[in-house]
Design brief:
Helix content: 40-55%
Number of domains: 1
Strand content: 25-35%
CATH class: Alpha Beta
Distance between the termini: 31 Å
CATH architecture: 2-Layer Sandwich
Number of helices: 4
Length: 114
Protein backbone atom coordinates (compact mmCIF):
# COMPACT_ATOMS: atom_id res chain seq x y z
CA UNK A 1 0.00 0.00 0.00
CA UNK A 2 1.13 3.50 -0.79
CA UNK A 3 -0.22 6.54 1.07
CA UNK A 4 0.34 10.18 0.23
CA UNK A 5 -0.90 13.13 2.26
CA UNK A 6 -1.52 16.48 0.60
CA UNK A 7 -3.33 19.67 1.53
CA UNK A 8 -5.86 21.69 -0.41
CA UNK A 9 -6.57 24.90 1.52
CA UNK A 10 -7.76 23.69 4.96
CA UNK A 11 -8.60 20.14 3.81
CA UNK A 12 -6.11 17.30 4.20
CA UNK A 13 -6.42 14.68 1.47
CA UNK A 14 -5.05 11.19 2.08
CA UNK A 15 -4.51 9.34 -1.21
CA UNK A 16 -4.49 5.53 -0.95
CA UNK A 17 -3.12 3.12 -3.52
CA UNK A 18 -3.45 -0.61 -3.05
CA UNK A 19 -5.13 -2.56 -0.27
CA UNK A 20 -6.36 -1.65 3.19
CA UNK A 21 -6.03 -5.08 4.77
CA UNK A 22 -4.56 -6.99 7.70
CA UNK A 23 -0.84 -7.46 7.34
CA UNK A 24 -0.64 -4.74 4.70
CA UNK A 25 -1.80 -1.61 6.47
CA UNK A 26 -2.04 -2.60 10.16
CA UNK A 27 -3.53 0.60 11.59
CA UNK A 28 -1.54 2.94 9.35
CA UNK A 29 -4.75 4.83 8.54
CA UNK A 30 -5.67 5.39 12.19
CA UNK A 31 -2.12 6.53 12.95
CA UNK A 32 -2.17 9.09 10.13
CA UNK A 33 -5.63 10.37 11.07
CA UNK A 34 -4.61 10.60 14.74
CA UNK A 35 -1.51 12.63 13.80
CA UNK A 36 -3.59 14.99 11.65
CA UNK A 37 -6.12 15.47 14.43
CA UNK A 38 -3.31 16.12 16.92
CA UNK A 39 -1.95 18.78 14.55
CA UNK A 40 -5.39 20.44 14.59
CA UNK A 41 -6.76 19.53 11.18
CA UNK A 42 -10.56 19.30 11.14
CA UNK A 43 -11.30 18.40 7.50
CA UNK A 44 -9.99 15.05 6.26
CA UNK A 45 -10.77 13.50 2.89
CA UNK A 46 -9.82 9.87 2.26
CA UNK A 47 -9.25 9.36 -1.46
CA UNK A 48 -10.11 5.71 -2.10
CA UNK A 49 -10.16 5.89 -5.91
CA UNK A 50 -7.00 3.75 -6.15
CA UNK A 51 -7.81 1.39 -3.25
CA UNK A 52 -8.70 -1.91 -4.86
CA UNK A 53 -9.47 -4.01 -1.77
CA UNK A 54 -10.54 -3.65 1.84
CA UNK A 55 -10.99 -6.41 4.42
CA UNK A 56 -12.50 -6.47 7.92
CA UNK A 57 -9.30 -5.07 9.42
CA UNK A 58 -9.38 -2.18 6.96
CA UNK A 59 -13.06 -1.59 7.68
CA UNK A 60 -12.20 -1.43 11.38
CA UNK A 61 -9.52 1.16 10.63
CA UNK A 62 -12.02 3.26 8.65
CA UNK A 63 -14.61 3.14 11.43
CA UNK A 64 -12.03 3.89 14.13
CA UNK A 65 -10.73 6.85 12.09
CA UNK A 66 -14.28 8.16 11.70
CA UNK A 67 -14.93 7.85 15.44
CA UNK A 68 -11.65 9.60 16.34
CA UNK A 69 -12.55 12.40 13.94
CA UNK A 70 -16.05 12.79 15.36
CA UNK A 71 -14.71 12.89 18.93
CA UNK A 72 -12.27 15.63 17.90
CA UNK A 73 -14.98 17.69 16.20
CA UNK A 74 -13.46 16.94 12.81
CA UNK A 75 -15.09 15.77 9.60
CA UNK A 76 -13.81 12.69 7.78
CA UNK A 77 -15.23 11.93 4.34
CA UNK A 78 -14.61 9.46 1.52
CA UNK A 79 -13.71 10.24 -2.06
CA UNK A 80 -14.63 7.92 -4.90
CA UNK A 81 -14.29 4.42 -3.45
CA UNK A 82 -13.99 1.79 -6.17
CA UNK A 83 -17.01 -0.46 -6.77
CA UNK A 84 -15.50 -3.35 -4.83
CA UNK A 85 -14.84 -1.17 -1.77
CA UNK A 86 -18.28 0.46 -2.00
CA UNK A 87 -19.89 -2.97 -2.20
CA UNK A 88 -18.02 -4.10 0.93
CA UNK A 89 -19.07 -0.95 2.80
CA UNK A 90 -22.67 -1.48 1.69
CA UNK A 91 -22.74 -5.19 2.64
CA UNK A 92 -21.43 -4.40 6.12
CA UNK A 93 -23.93 -1.55 6.55
CA UNK A 94 -21.08 0.93 7.06
CA UNK A 95 -21.69 3.02 3.95
CA UNK A 96 -24.40 5.23 5.57
CA UNK A 97 -21.90 6.26 8.28
CA UNK A 98 -19.78 8.12 5.73
CA UNK A 99 -20.26 11.09 3.45
CA UNK A 100 -19.10 9.86 0.03
CA UNK A 101 -18.22 12.02 -2.98
CA UNK A 102 -17.61 11.08 -6.61
CA UNK A 103 -15.11 13.85 -7.36
CA UNK A 104 -12.63 15.95 -5.43
CA UNK A 105 -14.18 19.26 -6.46
CA UNK A 106 -17.58 18.34 -4.95
CA UNK A 107 -15.95 17.00 -1.78
CA UNK A 108 -13.92 20.18 -1.26
CA UNK A 109 -17.00 22.32 -1.91
CA UNK A 110 -18.99 20.31 0.66
CA UNK A 111 -16.30 20.88 3.28
CA UNK A 112 -16.47 24.63 2.75
CA UNK A 113 -20.26 24.58 3.14
CA UNK A 114 -20.16 22.86 6.52
Amino acid sequence: MNIEVRKQNDVVIIDFKGRLAAGVSDEVLTQIVNELLTEGYKKILLNLSDMDYIDSSGLGDLVQSLRMSNRSGASLRLLKPQDRVTKTLRLTNLLPMFSVYENEKDALAAFSQS
